[in-house]
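So, can you check?
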Amino acid sequence: MDDDMYCELIKNLRLRTTERDANIRVHAAIALTRLLEDDDDDNMDDDGNKEESVLDILINMIQYDPNPDVRKAIMCNLDISEETLPYIIERARDIDTSIRRCFFLTTMRNINIDTLNMDQREKILGWGLFDREISVQKACKYLLCEKWINEDCNKDLVKFLNYFDVMTSTIVGDAIYIYFEKYPNLNFTYNETEWNSLTSENAFLIKKYVEFCHQNKRDDKLDDILPEIIKLVEYLKKYFRKIVDLKQEEEDEKILNEFIISQLLGIGNSLDYADEMGRRVMFSCLRELLVSSEIPNSQIPTIIDILMKTALNEKDLIRVIIEIICDIREPIEEVNTLQDPTMETLINTKCLEIIKCLLERTDENLSDNPALSEINHSLIVPAIKSSEEYLRELGLNCLGLWCNFDMMMSLKIIFDLIMRHGFRAFEDVIINLGVNGKFTVNEIFKRCLRNTEGEVLSLAVSGISKLMLLKYFYDPQILQRLVILYFHPCTINNDSLRQCLSYFLPAFSYSSIENQEFMTSILGVCIRKLLKQYYSSKKDEMITPIQIGQQMIEWTDYRRVLSNDFYKAKSCPHARLAIKFLKIAENDNITIIKTICYLLNKLTLNESVETLVIKDILERAENLKERTTNNTVNNLLSKINSPNNKSSHYIIKKDDISDEDEDNMETEKDKSMVISEHDNEKRNNSSSNDSKEKTKEEPIDITNNGDKDNNDNNTVLNTNNIDDHHKTENDNNDNNGDNTPDDITIVDDELLN
């Protein structure tokens, strides 16, 4: 073929590579691969510009042509060279499965393992063995076992490993394991001479074979390759002495011996330590290795694993670890005198690595171990405050692991994180589990409040109280638990808990009208449960229901709110509390009714109470008159109907009201009602108006008559009679041998749930 015909042919093939028909592009690409050897990079087009070379066209097509047949045709026909090989290897990650499979089965058959560099071998194995398609994985395994190992390396695994850097490779271990699975009956034999002159490849191969035999329960194969435990310890000490004797400039040799020791430790981790003499010798050797500064931190996890197998028990292991850490930290005092912070950092880092590995593996209760607790305070906590980033990270990791065994520390950390960062610190948990997720922060708090350990419960109450007082969150169920715990007999001996709640509950209520309304919303459920508990408990285990009710009344008294505008409040908490008390009295016996009536007369209403609420209170109070002969109900009715009640100045514009479900744990909300003032012109006499102006800013106190000169016996409550009545009632119950009213069903499990 003369030059003119060749140039014309190349010119037309170039044009065909841009055709819309994929078949035409396939044939044009194959033809160009045949003419690639004669291609001249200096070809010029008709305008005198340099043309794109044939190789550039093919490389561009193998990378970007949209049709997989075109890319496959070029991959299979393109000659292998230093220029083309990287682009051919890229087809191992092609989006088309058939191309990837063809790459391993066809293309790589023509490429020997020694043609590739180490990085290319790693990539090919990694892409093929972890491909998403099973067919591609099988094709890669075929290339590995049949082509590279059996054909190119003549079944010599050590020779195969020489093509990789076994000390840093992340894939060659999987490759060897795959070969063992394909040929499980391989026989390895190593004599003493070979053990004394191990290379990185030999040591790596033995370790992988031992792991394979253990995982596949082929322990009978190990007798031909493994020495006795005592002999293995000798080899460990031999290569360890080599590291110690090496000079600082012989870094490569040191790294090699460190790797061999790591492989020997891996072999030791797979052994059975039934031999007592072998166990003791190995335990002593590992202790020596762990104390030494020549052993890198990367080998600490394997050493700890073997120590756990050779130690008598976990307590013995923890004791030994503490001794080892003390031995490692001994030089720190000398280091401080020499002012060498680098050495101190290295020592602390190694100690933290040891503690981290221990905490990851032990199940012992570390909080009961004083020596280990001391290490926590002297090593872990200071590490968190270190200026070294890696040391801080290790300290936090150790502290987090420590919290698996110490609930007190875990709670303190949770509360500190929320106080410092708010609930943003737990956003990922809340997002992943949803608002109703099992392990949201509020759910953790609820679980802690159900804890039976006094210290944990006290700490949980203290932390939750601070967060609620600082308005980090509001949860009616949690507030309800706090109120019940304050009065419940189970906390009678928990002084710190009750002291905390004795401050928190009034402080929370008095801080704002909103908090009082929130407190009022949960008191109905609380008083109901506490009444049940009171009548099911032994005498003197709880304060009386009247005392409990008086506490609740004080917490919800709007006059105690620390605010300048509390007289202008749009709602009266005691009005809602009255309805709650009356609802409880509707279905209970006479004892509860009289208690409720006594508490009702201690409530204070103001002029902001809506007429419809007053009407509801009156109707419920009237229903109680038929069930008791006590004057407390009459006192309540007369005071609400007193002329001092400014609620009579309002009329109803919308008069629908519905009963609230008291057993609902959610915050109760009163239905809004639209009310308006009467026209002042409709007032009948000026004297009445004058009286109203004088009392406009005065609250209605049900404990008073509203008129200091009025001493009507129908409206003044004789508390002595009530107290005497309760005393007589309780005495009668005690004589009957049962202080529980007949109408009350006692369900202890409900009280703190």
Notes: The beta strands are 604-605, 650-652, 675-677, 700-701. The longest strand covers residues 650-652. The longest helix spans residues 513-536. Residues 645-753 have pLDDT under 50 and may be disordered.
